[in-house]
Amino acid sequence: MGAFDFLSKLRQTVQQVVDYSARSTPTSSRPAYAVIDVETTGLSPKFGRVLELAVVRVDQNGNIVDEYVERFNPEGPVGATHIHGIRDSDVASSPVFHEVSATIIERLRGLPVIAHNANFDLAFLHAELAAAGWTVPPISFYCTLRGSYDYLPHAERRRLTDCCSATGVPLRNAHSALGDARATAGLLSVYLARGGTVHTELAIASAKAAASTWPLGPGRSPLPRSQRSEHSRQPRPVRITPPRPRAPALLQQISALSIEAVLDEGVPAANTAYIELLLDALEDGEITDAEAAGLNDLRQAYSLSPANTSSIHEAVIVALDDGHVSNDERTELETLAQLLSVPPAKLRTVIDHADRARKERLGAGLRPLPTDWADGEPLRVGDRVAFTGCDEKQRNRLEQRAATLGVRVMNNVSKFTVVLVTDGSFDGSKQAKAREIGTRVVHPDKFDLLLNLDPPTFLGVRGSAVLSG
Prior knowledge:
The chain is an alpha/beta fold. About 45% of the residues lie in helices and about 10% in strands.
């Protein structure tokens, strides 16, 4: 088939699927999409193995047509039993992946794959099929995590549990392949019912899947166990913090850290899926050398260069150090930064800047907050502000003063921006965003006053009862 014929067929199939999706038709019993989920021995698709795979095929409306689930003997340790619940004894008599690979391919053949954080699942699926001797064509897919930006634009986090909670989709037996695949199918059905971009994206994915040719059988022998056994040499976990009766504050910060806080550091939104995976890896309070290596191996699956990965890791560290961490938490941050290969100088720069800002504030002659002050809370170390439409000379002076006092000057407005400084001479995207989310807007002269006020200790973190600065 020539390139022209292929493109012609692709356009024709897209139009047919779009036309079909636009019609109101009874539920079909024919599978239209293959929703998958995998549970794995670790994070590295290169050396990790699939422990459990579920394929839930659904029709055009997202209704379940049939289900398939299988556990596999990974020919080595099962990894994080505390997450997926699978023990070595549970899979000792299970088939090895290559023994049932043909069955799996028949369930996927001709259908687009749907998954939540699809890059992860597909990286492992591709690695297992390749190791089983198959020549794997490009797999057409739709990611419900990425789709959440269209259907859940204001979500704090975009894990499967977050998206299901926001849409009312039940998530039973989380971190089991079948439980997660059913929940992802439910999430897809919500998207389909709401209309919008999902129909066009699925039409394109369906057309690509229909035009893709899977081989009828493996073209070579499966890789021997010895060539896939490096994942079994996993070192003991290195804890971010020592065990304590309750969750350390830094781990609470990691759990509470929103994706937007990381994106606010300048990371593109296209990297959300990798950030979610990274935060999930950190939330149990430990990260092993194998997990760190696994994150490195996943770069290719997420189309990240080493520089992209480094910038994301640095953004996570900076987002966690909001200028109000204790000495113990800073020690934990330093350990975390080391495990993520963030240069010590990067973290030290952030910490030192906050320390210098606090010292600067002590000698800056800041005035107590007037008792009749009615213009909002003063500014604190770590607060984020943005400028637009100001006199350039005054703006430069205020930005330098703000930075000296530990106030971060950002290039964008987000929900983390406490003040937008403007004289009203320009009404652009920052002003529009501030109106949309209710950011406080002040005149440069008023901002100058705010910089010279000392927050009372009882205000702390935007009204909470902790020490200021």
